[in-house]
Amino acid sequence: MCLAALAIGLSDRHPWVLASNRDEFFDRPAAPLAWWRPPNGAQDILSGRDLSAGGTWLGLTAGGRLSLVTNVREPGRVMAASRSRGELVLQSLLDSEAAAPPPDCLAVPRNGFNLITADLSIDAQRQSGAAAARWVSNRSPAPQALRPGLYGLSNAALDTPWPKVTNLKEALRHTVAQAQGIDDIIDSAFAALADRRCAADAQLPDTGIPLQRERQLSAAFIDIAAADGQGRPYGTRCSTVVLVVQRQGGRRLVHVVERRFRVGGALAGETAVQWELESPGR
Predict the structure, then answer these.
(1) Are 69 and 115 in contact (CB under 8 A)?
(2) Residue 274 to residues 21, 214, 246, 254: CA-CA distances in angstroms?
(3) Side-chain half-sphere CA neighbours of 153 within 13 A
(4) Neighbour order of strands in the sheet with 30-36
(5) Cα gap 147→151, rounded to integer Å
(6) What is the pLDDT of residue 129?
């Protein structure tokens, strides 16, 4: 996954909203969003699956634990034999306390990564002492607690103001404030994730890659089809929206929708899952 925006506690009605895109080579096999049980896992996980390395880019548990990972763009620091970053998501969902990254996630050498972990059952607005979510990176010395607010992430540090990060955050802020219902939020989030506009050259970050590739990667929705026959098609493989709805009596419903795409951006399929969490702060 290479782009995400997360709204925590900005709305009493919708306390958690996540919009994210996963960008990857199209020839890397993956399974669509579904419940599955990892080997030796104590509980099922809802996620897509990387069938090459066995991990995932975004996953949840039935109890409301969430984890996602993005890579950090470091052209001069690429380890061919590095452990998969996707296994960090599984470790954080299965092996750590809620909303905490795996305690040894910085101990194993890996290519650059960002990891966000969260507990969707926590009422972040009212439980001020509870760390509802955390961010950790291979570049950061310690996890950073994420309090109620709006956060954006791509292939640099948390809230680095790349144009697509800033645009997605603002779109999500407006969506949470103005949307009238579940479908409205989900549709608006997917519309923001589908933005194919590239940033102006003056706004592009300098991450050490060629300018043309920097331009191509500056859009929220990426489509690098390698039409000239050189290289491998790369782009947005799927978009995912996670929405928590607060109901009367403390009921909290989780809605997860994944849309998958072919080379060129045509819709290949959609999966929607919803369930009820236990009471917040259980």
Answers:
(1) yes
(2) 20, 37, 13, 5
(3) 29
(4) 30-36, 45-50, 58-60, 65-71, 113-119, 133-137, 144-146
(5) 10
(6) 55
Per residue in 85-132, pLDDT (tens digit) is: 989 999 899 876 667 788 777 778 788 899 999 999 988 666 555 678
Collapsing DSSP to helix, strand or coil, 48 comes out as: strand
The dihedrals phi and psi of 19, each to the nearest 5 degrees, come to -125, 130
| Residue closest to 37 by CA, chosen among 116, 102, 94 | 94
Element (H, E) at 163: helix 163-178
Token pair recorded at residue 118: 């969260």
CA-to-CA distance for 113 and 106, rounded, in angstroms?
10
**Residue 267 CB coordination number (10 Å):** 10
Biggest alpha carbon distance in the chain? Answer: 58
Chain segment 14-37, per-residue pLDDT in tens: 999 999 999 999 999 999 999 999
Alpha-helical segments (H) within 76-147: 86-94
- In 3-state terms, what secondary structure has residue 172? helix
Residue 81, Cβ density class (10 Å: 0-12 exposed, 13-18 middle, ≥19 buried)? exposed
Residue whose token pair is 């109620």: 148
